[in-house]
């Protein structure tokens, strides 16, 4: 009542005003109104009962230098345009391809970046009735339809992605909680598939398809309880992070089909997940209105972020904005070549990012380089939040060394010698509640942390020792049947952190999993996970506050993508917005 009264008197006007620009330490991000993509009529879409608007990008290496292409779904419609970004205004009158579906709606899509050329692209599209379509929007061809008769799964497709490094394998998750591995070269068969158990563990099982000839799906994963809302491959393609409606993040070794670690939301389902560019951290968001940062190496929650007022729908790391700070010369250990090797913008080096040059920062004794990770989130509250994950969160028990700025990626003006990027930010967040000044184990430099509440840190660390990550022979034999998968061609990870499996994860919902042991059938009591490594209490981990938190749309936000010269957002009304990074607005605008 108070809010409505304030709004009526004009007091809530500023709060409800939609922002067209915002400022961070790099400078001013500006909304490019002429670069807005939508349905050609630009009429807001009535989104009642519709699936979320999603956006996919691909670069086709066009000789003209304008090779970016964008695909987005609005209701029953799917559009494919040339994406001009910050360079030129969008021309909505000329879609390269437009499709209108009857009886079903597109829910998600993904381009194969390996095979894309100016003449052909492979685009996977998932649908609300469970089917998956492979189309070429340049040639305007529909090459294949998977799960056409819905014999494999009848529920909505929640997420699909090409397997990294593969031209033919793709993974599809459904609202049923099942996930399927397909090969575009194989057919699906005319009868419902029969499955054979390949691997089972804590609230997950993996089955192979039992048939005389190889057919889709190659593998069926049953993960958690309720819908599997989203999954994401690690930058090196070896691990798979899944978030489910049961509130669990589960991280699997994709090749070995083994559970690496788990995390539980504070409450409610988890809706979105992403990896840091170097594969060391995972961020998840969901119905608890929080963003949760989880350490891949330690298998534990290291921070939570509170800024959204409703469910968090998308989280994403900004590969192009990171601060790399040089330690005092006397503290640096290593050669000049090593040091230069670490001064990188790791967004450009995805293929080797997990074993990237930043991995040398793992040695927390000398820490020659510190990195501030930037990530963002959007939610049903129509707000965009940007967050910085800083050294006092990543290494809470070590005093921060005196640092000077070495690299600030976005070409912003460097602060004077002796200053840090962290100090720079405080001017934009003067109202931040920096309670970290009194945190044990963190020196006074942490008081310059922008809007970061560094609450007392838990002394507990991730469980388990270092394992070899070697797949047992039974699994190897089972999977070798499917040589076409090419899942074991990649180099084995040198070290894989073992995870203490002290907590039961609930029973598996697969009807064919009759051989599961009692542990996997034990339901998880949320009250028993709170206060454990799975789900620390709020006071046991640092609480991040956003660098910026801005209302940027009328309807709930469904897309956040970081590109080199801009970031892209979309709302349920069907408007895809381009925000130019500082200094990236082309003069023609």
TrEMBL record:
WD repeat extents? 263-295
Q: Where is this region: Disordered?
A: 423-463, 490-514
Q: Where is the composition biased (Low complexity)?
A: 423-439
> SMART domains, per this entry?
WD40 (SM00320)
Ranges of Polar residues composition bias in the record = 440-457
UniProt keyword Cytoplasm, yes or no: yes
Q: What is its main location?
A: cytoplasm
Q: Which keywords appear in this protein's UniProt record, sorted alphabetically?
A: Acetylation, Cytoplasm, Nucleus, Phosphoprotein, Repeat, WD repeat
> Which GO terms of the cellular component aspect does the record hold?
cytoplasm; nucleus
UniProt feature, compositional bias: Basic residues: 491-504
Q: State where the protein is found.
A: Cytoplasm; Nucleus
Q: Which Gene3D superfamilies match?
A: YVTN repeat-like/Quinoprotein amine dehydrogenase
* PROSITE patterns named in the record: WD_REPEATS_2 (PS50082), WD_REPEATS_REGION (PS50294)
Q: How does it assemble?
A: Interacts with USP12; promotes translocation of USP12/WDR20 to the plasma membrane. Component of the USP12/WDR20/WDR48 deubiquitinating complex. Interacts with USP46; contributes to the cytoplasmic localization of the USP46/WDR20 complex. Component of the USP12/DMWD/WDR48 deubiquitinating complex.
Protein name as catalogued: WD repeat-containing protein 20
Q: Supply the source organism for this entry.
A: Anabas testudineus (Climbing perch)
């Amino acid at each position: 009542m108070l809010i409505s009264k304030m709004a009526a008197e004009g007091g809530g006007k500023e709060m409800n005003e939609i922002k067209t620009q915002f400022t961070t330490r790099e400078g001013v991000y500006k909304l490019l109104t002429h670069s807005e993509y939508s349905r050609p009529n630009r009429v807001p879409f009535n989104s009642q009962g519709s699936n979320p608007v999603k956006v996919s990008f691909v670069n086709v290496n066009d000789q003209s230098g304008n090779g970016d292409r964008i695909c987005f779904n609005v209701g029953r419609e799917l559009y494919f345009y040339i994406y001009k970004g910050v360079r030129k205004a969008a021309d909505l009158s000329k879609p390269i391809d437009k499709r209108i579906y009857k009886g079903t709606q597109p829910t998600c899509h993904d381009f194969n970046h390996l095979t894309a050329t100016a003449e052909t692209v492979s685009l996977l599209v998932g649908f609300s009735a469970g089917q998956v379509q492979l189309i070429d929007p340049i040639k305007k061809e529909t090459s294949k339809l998977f799960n056409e008769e819905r014999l494999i799964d009848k529920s909505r497709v929640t997420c699909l992605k090409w397997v990294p490094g593969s031209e033919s394998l793709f993974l599809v998750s459904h609202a049923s909680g099942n996930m399927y591995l397909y090969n575009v070269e194989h057919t699906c068969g005319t009868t419902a598939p029969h499955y054979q158990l390949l691997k089972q563990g804590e609230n997950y099982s993996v089955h192979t398809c039992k048939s005389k000839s190889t057919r889709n799906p190659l593998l069926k994963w049953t993960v958690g309880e309720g819908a599997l809302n989203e999954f994401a491959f690690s930058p090196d393609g070896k691990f798979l992070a899944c978030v489910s409606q049961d509130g669990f993040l589960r991280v699997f070794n994709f090749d070995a089909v083994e559970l690496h670690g788990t995390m539980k939301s504070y409450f409610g389902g988890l809706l979105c997940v992403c990896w840091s560019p170097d594969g060391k951290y995972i961020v998840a968001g969901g119905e608890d209105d929080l963003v949760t940062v989880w350490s891949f190496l330690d298998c534990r929650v290291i921070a939570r972020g509170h800024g959204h007022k409703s469910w968090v729908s998308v989280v994403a790391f900004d590969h192009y904005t990171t601060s790399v700070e040089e330690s005092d010369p006397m503290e640096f250990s290593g050669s000049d070549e090593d040091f230069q090797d670490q001064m990188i913008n790791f967004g450009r080096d995805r293929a080797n990012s997990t074993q990237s040059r930043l991995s040398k920062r793992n040695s927390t004794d000398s820490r020659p380089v510190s990195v501030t990770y930037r990530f963002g989130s959007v939610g049903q509250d129509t707000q965009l939040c940007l967050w910085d994950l800083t050294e006092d969160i990543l290494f809470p028990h070590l005093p921060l060394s005196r640092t000077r700025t070495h690299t600030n990626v976005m070409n912003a003006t460097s602060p004077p010698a002796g200053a840090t990027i962290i100090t720079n930010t405080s001017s934009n967040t003067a109202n931040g509640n920096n309670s970290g000044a009194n945190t044990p184990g963190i020196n006074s430099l942490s008081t310059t942390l922008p809007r970061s509440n560094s609450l007392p840190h838990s002394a507990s660390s991730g469980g388990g020792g270092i394992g070899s990550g070697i797949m047992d022979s039974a699994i190897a034999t089972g999977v070798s049947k499917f040589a076409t998968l090419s899942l074991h061609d990649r180099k084995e990870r040198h070290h894989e952190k073992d995870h203490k499996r002290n907590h039961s994860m609930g029973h598996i919902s697969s009807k064919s999993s009759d051989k599961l042991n009692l542990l996997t059938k034990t339901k998880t009591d949320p009250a028993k996970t709170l206060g454990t490594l799975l789900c620390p209490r709020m006071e046991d981990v640092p609480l991040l506050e956003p660098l910026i938190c801005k209302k940027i749309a009328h309807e709930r936000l469904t897309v956040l993508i970081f590109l080199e010269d801009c970031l892209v957002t979309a709302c349920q009304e069907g408007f895809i917005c381009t925000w130019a990074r500082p200094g990236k607005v082309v003069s023609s605008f």
